[in-house]
Design brief:
By secondary structure, the chain is of the alpha+beta class. The protein has five helices and four strands; from the N terminus they run E-E-E-H-E-H-H-H-H.
Length: 145
């Protein structure tokens, strides 16, 4: 999964949170943990706004080893990747609707809404319709000998 970097700066008794990937992200927190949580929430809101306004979404750029980085929920990352795949290919939501053979445009709109609880199989179906299967890699522990 991808990580986004955040900067935390003391601001009085709170910590000011900013993102180099999303200049519009500004938040705060009383503690480091709270600041990172608010920063992650602000990045999610920035992604939702960029989808709504048909703007670019930067790819995750941070290493999980970074001092201040956050990981987005898997579904947010999948929906952002789906949106960017459509954008890169010059496809519209109507194109995706046709490719998925869905009867209603609203079904595609919900696929790209971060606040909609979409079934993962529906998102995977969208990627398959685009010819871009999703690969999820989870290291499996070795079986006990």
């Amino acid at each position: 999964m991808g990580f986004y970097a955040l900067t935390l700066e003391p601001d009085g008794e709170a910590l000011l949170v900013r993102s180099t990937d999303f200049p519009e992200v500004v938040s705060f927190g009383e503690t480091r943990e709270e600041a990172l949580l608010h920063g992650r929430d602000a990045i999610e809101e920035a992604i939702a706004a960029r989808i709504a306004h048909r703007e670019e979404i930067p790819a995750p750029s941070a290493s999980p080893l970074g001092a201040h980085c956050v990981e987005l929920p898997v579904m947010v990352e999948l929906k952002a990747a789906l949106y960017m795949t459509l954008r890169r290919r010059g496809l519209s939501r109507a194109d995706l609707q046709r490719l998925m053979q869905l009867p209603h445009r609203e079904q595609v709109d919900r696929l790209l809404r971060l606040d909609h609880n979409t079934h993962i199989e529906t998102v995977l179906q969208a990627f398959r319709a685009l010819g871009s299967p999703v690969e999820i890699r989870i290291p499996m522990p070795d079986a006990a000998a």
